[in-house]
Amino acid sequence: MEKTIPLISSGATGPLGVVHLPRLWQKVVLSAKGALADGYDECGPGFDQMVLDGLGLDRTETLNYLKQNIPSYPEFEKWVVDKKGPIDQATKERVNQAVRGYNHKDEVRQSILKENGLHDDGTVLDAVTLNNIDDWGEFYKQLKG
């Protein structure tokens, strides 16, 4: 399998309604298959850990489940609910707000925008949008060869 740029946005949700959870799933299962593009953490200390902590999921147990079972995304959400019980709306909102409200440091923002030919006019601040721009740029580089 060719190395793949994860293009599921950190802002995406599945039926459970938790942002970034689909991207976390995609990165880990791609990594388990040796197909995660170079430079991408299978489960990093940022949004990945924020979501795991917010849902009360054990990092090692979750990664082991994903790597050993390679579940579909709906199967992964079912596993989360089986582990934690129904995820209440307040928990979802807290996790979603933490992800959506996170901003990269100025130098990270400036680097991503510059690398993608965009002027930093102060209008793009949130990490979700910046990470999307970064992913799209990496995808385009891979596409162009």
The whole-number mean of residue pLDDT values reads 97
Helicity, in percent? Answer: 55-70%
> Over all CA atoms, what is the radius of gyration?
16 Å
Q: Can you count the helices?
A: 7
Uncertain stretches: none
Distance between the termini: 17 Å
How many beta-strand elements? 0
Strand content: under 5%
- Topology pattern, helix = H, strand = E: HHHHHHH
Structural class: mainly alpha
Domain count, please report it.
Answer: 2
Shape: globular
Q: Describe the largest sheet.
A: none
What would you note in describing this structure?
- The chain is an all-alpha fold and 145 residues long.
- It folds into 2 domains: 10-102, no CATH class; 103-145, no CATH class.
- The chain has 7 helices and no strands.
- The chain has helices at residues 21-32, 47-55, 59-69, 73-84, 89-100, 106-115, 127-144.
- Helix 2 (47-55) packs antiparallel against helix 5 (89-100) and helix 6 (106-115) packs parallel to helix 7.
- The radius of gyration is 16 Å and the shape is globular.
Short structural description:
By secondary structure, the protein is mainly α.
Key traits:
145 residues, mainly alpha, 2 domains, 7 helices
Give the secondary structure arrangement, pairings included.
Elements: H1 21-32, H2 47-55, H3 59-69, H4 73-84, H5 89-100, H6 106-115, H7 127-144
Helix pairs in contact: 1-3, 2-5, 6-7
